[in-house]
Amino acid sequence: MARAKIALIGAGNIGGTLAHLAAVKELGDVVMFDIADGLPQGKALDIAESGPSEGFDAAMSGTSDYADIAGADVCIVTAGVARKPGMSRDDLLGINLKVMKSVGEGIAAHAPNAFVICITNPLDAMVWALREFSGLPHEKVCGMAGVLDSARFRHFLAEEFNVSMRDVTAFVLGGHGDTMVPLTRYSTVAGIPLPDMVEMGWTTQEKLDAIVQRTRDGGAEIVGLLKTGSAFYAPATSAIEMAEAYLKDQKRVLPCAAYVDGAYGLNGFYVGVPTVIGAGGVEKVVEISMNKDEQAMFDNSVNAVKGLVEACKGIDGSL
Ligand code: APR
Asked: Where does NAD(+) bind (predicted)?
């Protein structure tokens, strides 16, 4: 069977890491697209030259011509401007909305059958705009946020409990931002819900609350440390997990920014929810029951995303 084709739109920090991971995991041949002259070609060549040592078979190429993404099975979009210190995700809105228009049109023209994973921030609004501009089916366009947010949550929890992160599951809902909703009731250590871990004396409610807040601020914490850019290793790894679920029809249950139409009382709206990802793209939105407090946090998050979408409509009248 022919190798899958993976198009990476944006060859910056996340794009380069995506390319390297896709190659090392032999998920398929990789085409990196960027408007920066020489950048995608340079990174593609550099990664290709790591092939003999690592021992992977995957063709790597770089381009500034959308025609070269033709027939891609997966497109992962990181094109745009990354958050700088002091800049909120929302500040990025105007700049990255224009980028989504050109990317959406490029994908629609050359890779209309691809599974598209958007990473560009502000994520929930950008994935919605990208879907609108591309016109692809809703189940084939989603955003990467929840996998990263829950990975951060799992990392902090594993550190707190001094156990392997493999035995920690975490559940995060809502928009990717300060209003995200980490759900402790649905997060576990080897199946033991976090509130039970507090009762068992493994941690305190105060410590758990601090971890939840650190998870919400996870992106900003990295920006503050790096000073010249935002996180890229973990975001790239998270998106690769989603791409692999699609390419291998794994039916993974992963949280992502998905189009929700009917579930959670939403009508046609992109927000972070648990989904099943397989060969059909986002095959299912999993609707969980929430208590009053959780519902209030989720509603707050949805309203924040709605505000961003409205702002996009204000900027681009065609939306
Ligand atoms: N088309 C294609 N590529 C573009 C376009 C465009 N219209 N505009 C910008 N780019 C490219 C830039 O040239 C740059 O190489 O997008 C790349 C972005 O890379 P970085 O600045 O290194 O940003 P990165 O850290 O990869 O993050 C990308 O993901 O998490 C989000 O907030 C983050 O929105 C940001 C995105």
From this structure: 10-15, 34, 96, 119-121
159: CA distance to ligand 1 center in Å? 31
Query: Which residues of the chain are in CATH 3.90.110.10 domains?
Result: 146-314
CA 308 to chain centre: 17
Q: Which CATH class is domain 146-314?
A: alpha beta
**Contact residues of ligand 1, CB 6 A cut-off:** 9-15, 34-36, 39, 78-80, 82-83, 96, 99, 102-103, 119-121, 229-230, 232, 235
pLDDT at 88: 66
For the chain, residues classed under CATH 3.40.50.720 are: 5-144
Tell which CATH architecture fits domain 5-144: 3-Layer(aba) Sandwich (3.40)
Q: What is the pLDDT of residue 92?
A: 80
Binding residues for NAD(+): 10-15, 34, 96, 119-121
Binding-site annotation, residues for substrate: 83, 89, 121, 152
User: Residue 84 — pLDDT band, cuts 50, 70, 90?
Assistant: low
